[in-house]
Structure formats: C-alpha cells, structure tokens
Write a structure and sequence with these properties.
Layout lengths: L2 E13 L5 E9 L2 E7 L1 H4 L3 E6 L7 H4 L12 E6 L10 E2 L9 E7 L2 E5 L1 H5 L38 E4 L2 E13 L4 E5 L9 E6 L9
Antiparallel strand pairs: 1-2, 1-12, 2-11, 3-4, 3-6, 4-5, 7-10, 7-12, 8-9, 10-11
C-alpha cells in the first residue's frame, strides 16, 4: 500500500535539470505509525489505520486505541483502504515509499469562503453598472416560467450559498522531489487547503505505477 498522511507547508518553485521553473507544493509527510489493520472478516472491509503527529494529553478512551501500538498516541487517525492484492504496511510508513517521477492523488479540505454570491461561487456575469441599472451582482432570472415550474426553484439550481470547506481530491500530481531526511515531499502544482492543512497522499488511481 502506498499512502501517507502529511501537512501542507506551502508553495514555492524549484528549477529542474533544464533550468525551467516548476511550481511545487511542499508537504511534510509522515512518519505515520500503523495503529491497526482492519480485516474483511471482522470489520467488513480492509484498511490500514495510520496515525500522524503527537498529542500531549489523551483521554483514556482515545488512548485505548493505541494500547497495541508502539509509541505515544497520535494526534489524528486516518484510514487507508486496501484494494485487492494490496498488503497492509507494518511498523511505520515514511515518505520514502514514493520516489521522484511518480504520480499521486492528494486529498484535503478546501479553503472555506463562507456565504458567497453567484459571481464568486459559480462565475456568473454581473449586470450592467451604468445607464440606471440597479441590479449588479444578483443571480438574475431563474427562468421559472420557461422551465414549467410555475415559480418553483428546482433542486440543484446554482445560487448564492456556502462555498468551499469541503473534501477535494486532486489527481495525478507528479512527485518532483523526495527528501527522506526531513520527511518532505514536493509535488507539482497546488493541493487543497490552507497552510498547515492535513492532506492524504495516495498512489495515483489514473496513472498507477507510471513515471514521467
């Protein structure tokens, strides 16, 4: 199984062998101790439970999850599902399970923007700003009569509302560099979340086993 938990440190750029600037996201990945392995017979599915970080004080119920694991209780836990034929990791998962040129999928929680209008949330065009117009950034006509709704707003209509703060997966990001000494992983492009956000890095589904 190729999967690890990390923390987004931010974005920067590095130069490749040809001197071209490449935008990368720096992720502090692992080390992640394997807390336990869930089996098909007992739990109904196969997964490896990984820990990340350290917690100063843990309640007795929370600390009880780590009675069979080595080391102090982890700050957070994440499950990594195991596909058919994938073996569960043992001991500790470190960033060196990945190598430069591989492709990974990164999952995290996107930035929250609160309640936003249709222009920011969906990219709507604004109304005219001159010639006496008093309707600038509203959603406009909902076409209720033309759609046969009789004044009903159908479910799924793109309107103002809560924007962001949801689970997002960015697929097929290339690993540019792996620093095993400092537990750093550099991937091309942007990943979800703010600085310090927790992300999950898995082997790419679309480009599994491929290198650049």
């Amino acid at each position: 199984m190729k999967g690890i938990i990390g923390r987004k440190l931010g974005m920067t750029r590095i130069f490749d062998e040809t001197g071209r600037a490449v935008s990368v996201t720096v992720i502090e990945a692992g080390p992640c101790p394997v807390i336990r392995v869930k089996a098909e017979e007992k739990d109904g599915y196969r997964a490896a439970v990984l820990g990340y970080g350290r917690v100063r004080r843990a309640s007795r119920p929370y600390a009880g999850q780590f009675k069979n694991a080595e080391g102090a209780p982890s700050r957070l836990l994440r499950e990594m599902l195991l596909a058919d034929g994938e073996d569960a990791p043992e001991g500790e998962v470190r960033v060196d399970i990945f190598s430069a040129g591989e492709y990974v999928d990164v999952r995290g929680r996107s930035k929250g923007h609160g309640f936003t209008g249709g222009i920011k949330r969906w990219g709507f065009h604004r109304g005219p700003m001159t010639h006496g117009s008093k309707y600038h950034r509203g959603p406009g006509s909902l076409s209720s009569r033309m759609s046969g709704g009789g004044g009903k707003v159908f479910k799924g209509r793109r309107l103002p509302g809560h924007y962001g703060n949801e689970r997002v997966t960015v697929q097929a990001l290339q690993v540019i560099r792996v620093d095993a000494d400092r537990n750093l992983l550099l991937v091309r492009g942007a990943v979800p979340g703010v600085r310090g956000a927790i992300v999950e890095i898995r082997q790419s589904v679309k480009r599994r086993g491929k290198k650049a």
